[in-house]
Specification:
18 helices; nine-stranded mixed beta sheet; 13% strand; 407 residues; alpha/beta; single chain; TIM Barrel
Length: 407
């Protein structure tokens, strides 16, 4: 899934980026969508701050985000990291005591705050000790009014004044003379719409499940809750377990908790990894998912001969070997979400270690790099027949699994 955000720089007097205002978008079209301000802010925060690293979008700069009055009063201090976020209080907010208390709590928790499109009013003065930035719109206030306001409130030395909607060189020169510290507007940069790849709810559920099943001790209550949150996962789990269970000639397992217990730790870990990769491949080239499954089994079969103690890790390594392509993100950004062992991390990140060696062997065969493959096979005490046989077995296994689950 892709999300969209418009980013407009806020510059210091030397023209260096001090921060960016982030504006919610639903496409590459650079306009605010037809939706409420509160919903837009919730989605922007979820997509840009919770689903991925904000540093990838703005580096170490500050992020100025519009927060409607109602959201500020909700006390969302525990929902977001505060280091880079500047909460912009909109001009239509009601400056009552309840809002003031909310702003005080934000400041106490380490958040920075700004008054957006501020229109001078005595009602807001009690907020100034807890405000870091005041943004004045040059289309709403004259330069003389701005200069007078800045001069009056310069005694609040902690406040930086931002000139908004600077549209030409003369306005920039006049704004500096008026005492503004920071500058934003079309003269410097129009908002740039950026598209970013984020994980869908299904994918996030998969990652959360994978983390849970890789704990040393399984929390069956937590696992049952996670599976029950997703209809598809529940369906596939019960179907998979009952296909395995049918040989026992007992009645079907129709309870999620019993199904989880029946699978056991190792098989549950493998099932979850398979399903997570399937979810990520939704709406993408299904061939990538097919290759991932082939690699999983292929790598496991090779490990059985070369490094039997790493068979389980080899399966996961092969299965996740195309995650960077499926998620359109560097594997180094993906691995923190995954509970994988050190050998798997080493192989996926650097193609090192015994699993990295097996990954190289598979890639050599896929790319018909026969001289290099021959060297690897000789080193591992294998031959071309072994390698081809394992590959064919992996293809047949992946086909059976796909047919069974209709993934």
């Amino acid at each position: 899934m892709r999300c969209f955000v418009a980013r407009q720089a806020i510059l210091d007097s030397q023209g260096n980026p001090f921060g960016y205002e982030l504006l919610f978008r639903t496409s590459l079209e650079n306009r605010f969508p037809e939706m409420g301000a509160e919903d837009a802010t919730r989605r922007l925060m979820a997509e840009q701050f919770l689903s991925q690293k904000i540093e990838d979008l703005v580096g170490q700069a500050l992020c100025f985000v519009n927060f409607p009055d109602s959201l500020i009063r909700e006390d969302m201090r525990d929902s977001f990291a505060q280091q880079q976020l500047v909460v912009e209080i909109l001009e239509n907010a009601t400056p009552d005591m309840a809002l003031l208390e909310s702003v005080k709590l934000l400041k106490k928790s380490g958040f920075k705050t700004a008054l957006d499109d501020h229109i001078p009013s005595q009602q807001w003065e009690k907020f100034f000790p807890f405000i870091d930035f005041i943004k004045l719109d040059l289309r709403e206030l004259s330069m003389a009014e701005c200069a007078s306001f800045i001069k009056t409130y310069q005694r609040h030395s902690h406040i930086k004044f931002i000139a908004e909607k600077v549209e030409n060189q003369q306005e920039y020169t006049d704004a500096k003379a008026a005492g503004f510290d920071l500058f934003q507007g079309y003269y410097f940069q129009q908002p740039q719409v950026i598209s970013r790849r984020i994980l869908t709810t299904d994918e996030m559920t998969g990652f959360e499940l994978l983390s849970a099943v890789n704990e040393p001790e399984l929390d069956y209550d937590k696992l049952t809750e996670l599976f029950s949150q997703d209809l598809s996962l529940s369906y596939y789990l019960l179907r998979h377990v009952n296909s395995l269970h049918s040989g026992y000639k007992q009645k079907n397992i129709d309870n999620l908790r019993n199904a989880i217990v029946f699978l056991g730790h190792q098989q549950l870990r493998r099932f979850t990894a398979l399903m997570m990769t399937a979810y990520i491949s939704k709406n993408k080239n299904i061939e990538l998912y097919r290759i991932s499954m082939i690699r999983a089994k292929w790598c496991e079969l090779l490990a059985e001969k070369v490094c039997p103690h790493l068979q389980d890790d080899a399966f996961i390594c092969g299965l996740f070997s195309l995650l960077d392509t499926l998620l359109e993100r560097p594997i180094a950004d993906i691995l923190p979400h995954l509970s994988v062992t050190e050998p798997v991390q080493q192989a996926l990140l650097e193609q090192k270690g015994q699993l990295g060696f097996l990954m190289g062997m598979m890639q050599d065969q896929e790319q018909a790099n026969w001289p290099m493959l021959e060297q690897r096979l000789t080193f591992a005490n294998l031959n071309q027949h072994d390698s081809s046989q394992f590959y064919e077995q992996a293809i047949q296994w992946s086909k059976q699994l796909t047919d069974r689950h209709h993934v």
